[in-house]
Design goal:
Strand content: under 5%
Order of helices and strands: HHHHHHHHHHHH
Largest sheet: none
Number of strands: 0
Helix content: over 70%
Structural class: mainly alpha
Distance between the termini: 47 Å
Number of helices: 12
Shape: globular
Radius of gyration: 18 Å
Length: 287
């Protein structure tokens, strides 16, 4: 129960933080896109700082959730951040949820429930060796880099989606490395954590991901970026958890089928909510 409370609390703060950050980022100069000065310009905006504070609170809560439960359990719950983003966006825009909005909420809730009930995520499996670990990390990082390179040659609307996908990949990897860090802290103490590379990688990935997310928020309305971010992060986190952390899911044919249905339901709900009229901004941008 503690893991559920922490993960849903994290999703709430993340969702609220994303909306406030995008509300500020859309006012930043387009010349700041993918440049570090974007973060410096945003740091002068009170609403962005408030959103950043919410986001950091969400990250802390998610780290606590990951320290108490498996990544494959926590990640689907974090995907509910879009529901909370939707509620704040509804307040800002005055748009009612309507049939499509409530359908998106239901799809996410039912998808998360189906995945958790069918998969019964649990730890205890053997962690992967160095070769498998670096292979998974390399694939995730390589895909994120490829998405950023392709995004630079796309119109702003499409660029926002690709940058958000890249950030989601990195955040999923960050969650897995956070889990490794908290486990080492519990097993070997703070001295061992300080001497390991994982916590520093978590910080670096977090900063790079922040730049990608803010650039995506600046490039286009929230509905073009947040669905991609929200869908990519849990899928990547689960893949990393199973790939090298030793997390296990039930693999009977029925269980696998329901897990796939659950994840597809979450993705469908995320996309449906992300394109709802309540999401801020509906104007097209061009480079």
């Amino acid at each position: 129960m503690v893991v559920f409370i922490l993960a849903v609390g994290a999703a709430c703060f993340l969702g609220l933080g994303f909306v406030l950050q995008q509300h500020a980022a859309q006012r930043a100069p387009k010349s700041d896109l993918l440049h570090w000065r974007l973060l410096l310009d945003l740091a002068r905006m009170p609403d962005w700082l408030l959103g950043l504070g919410f986001m950091i609170t969400g990250l802390v809560l998610s780290a606590l959730a990951l320290s108490q439960g498996e990544v494959a359990l926590v990640e689907p719950l974090l995907a509910t951040n879009l529901v909370f983003a939707m509620l704040l966006a509804r307040t800002l825009t005055g748009t009612r949820l309507g049939r499509s909005g409530w359908t998106g909420v239901a799809l996410i809730a039912l998808g998360v429930t189906a995945f958790i009930v069918a998969g019964r995520p649990e730890g205890g499996g053997a962690e992967a060796g160095p070769l498998r670990f670096w292979l998974v990390v390399g694939i995730v990082a390589g895909l994120a880099l490829l998405l950023v390179l392709v995004a630079k040659h796309m119109p702003l609307f499409e660029e926002a989606t690709l940058l958000a996908l890249a950030a989601g990949l990195l955040y999923g990897l960050q969650d897995a490395l956070t889990r490794m860090t908290t486990e080492r802290l519990d097993d070997e103490g703070l001295h061992a954590v300080v001497r390991s590379w994982q916590p520093y990688a978590v910080v670096v990935i977090g900063v790079v991901g922040l730049l990608l997310v803010q650039s995506a928020f600046e490039a286009a309305p929230l509905r073009m970026s947040l669905p991609a971010l929200t869908a990519a992060q849990p899928l990547t986190g689960i893949a990393c958890a199973v790939g090298f952390l030793g997390d296990q899911l039930r693999v009977t044919p029925a269980a696998v089928a329901w897990q796939v249905v659950g994840l597809l339901s979450v993705v469908a709900g995320v996309v449906l909510l992300g394109r709802h009229p309540a999401m801020p901004g509906h104007h097209h941008f061009h480079k």
